[in-house]
Amino acid sequence: MSDTDKQLRVSKIRNGTVIDHVTGGQALNVLAILGIDGAGGESVSIGMNVPSDRLGRKDVVKVEDRELSQSEVDVLSLIAPEATINIVRDYEVVEKLRVERPERVTGLLTCPNRNCISNANEPVDSRFDVVDDGVRCGYCGTIVRDDIADHLSVS
Amino acid sequence: MRHDHLLSAHQLSRADVEEVLSRAAEVAADPAAFRDRHAGKLLALCFFEPSTRTKMSFDAAMKRLGGDTVDMGSVESSSVKKGESLADTVRVIEGYADGVVLRHPSEGAATMAAEFVDVPLVNAGDGAGQHPTQTLLDLYTIRETHGLDDLTIGVMGDLKYGRTVHSLSTVLTNFDARQHFISPESLRLPRGVRFDLHEAGAQVREHTDLDEVLPELDVLYVTRIQRERFPDENEYHTVAGQYRIDAETLEAAKDDLTVMHPLPRVDEIAPEVDDTDHARYFEQAHNGVPVRMALLDLLLEEGE
Q1: B48 contact residues in A (CB cutoff 8 A)
Q2: Model ipTM?
Q3: Is B74 helix (H, G, I), strand (E, B) or coil?
Q4: Which segments of chain B belong to CATH 3.40.50.1370?
Q5: For residue B43, what pLDDT band results from cuts at 50, 70 and 90?
Q6: Cα distance from A137 to chain B (closest Cα, Å)?
Q7: A57, A122, B157, B207: which sits with the fewest CB atoms below 10 Å from its CB?
Q8: HSE (CB half, 13 Å, CA atoms) of B228?
Q9: Which positions make up the signal peptide (chain A) (predicted)?
Q10: What's the predicted TM-score (pTM) here?
């Protein structure tokens, strides 16, 4: 596929953030995690299941006029560990970030253990420690490995 | 103890355990020396689930330290019935007492509650999660009978939901212990506990049949398989019957095998075992008082 084809699918942005190499099918979860639902007025472009040499199929998310910080993008590592982040100013990529696994994520996931206190009507956010191959509830110790996106509390 | 609260067995290092058990041995040897240690102090008992042994032994422990207790009473008679959150309940109760003992049906309840209080908070059981003070009295009993090193222990029964098992197996990773887990496939240790044991490099094996391992054991820790875990009554009876011990079962065991049980038992240990030298479960339950006295003494003196 030529660059022109790619541009037709998802056009270049002037200023903002391009999240590339997102695991195929996870683009909407990426937006949910970032709290971008269109209500803020940002222009958002999404390419889903675009052919990729590295991933086979990938998603691409472009958010105009918003620069994401490292801490904002790190939580994406849980559902899109290969994601790359390009900060764009005046059509030029001025910064490239890679997602890094955070030590802990707060308020993002719902514990799958229905009997966990974080699912009761208590004034606390869910809290998960990131372990080798998944995340672990900071309250009840339940481990989530393969299906983290299914437990997003923001989607 | 360097801890403000006791919430989970994960907190308990070998040094912490040894400190509590040594203090418990001092208490047991000379209870009179501790009689006025915490005179004038109050311990709040907040039990959101039924309890006999744990609640009464905390009550006895605090009173034998010269202090007293205030009891939240049953959930039915409390403001919880009106929909109050646990966070609000403990924030109010900490104003009434110098320490809080909490039992709650939700996993992680004590960890969450501790975020809202400054007085020492002790987890007395959180759902299928943890029961660290039971572990301390279990370890005290093992230390008195066999010793805590070069130990081969078998833990049998409901390993999935048994919070005493989760806490005990976690703390035993700090000692030279080989742990065998004997249960039906459906009641294996939960993934989180297996993960911890693996991370700690523990020597662990899982079995479905006690006979495979009984002759090696120094301690057999039996837990109750609860009827409500099985949708089908017949299946419950079939499974429970395979994890029941009697005098005949124990013929294959070492002469000095210690049989323990956190109690209450239903029929997983036949009454005839009570009269053998193996049976230590009543002694184990009695150890709850000196061990909880020691724990409260350490936590409350930290706050002084």
Answers
A1: none
A2: 0.92
A3: coil
A4: 9-130+288-302, 132-285
A5: very high
A6: 9
A7: A57
A8: 1
A9: none
A10: 0.89
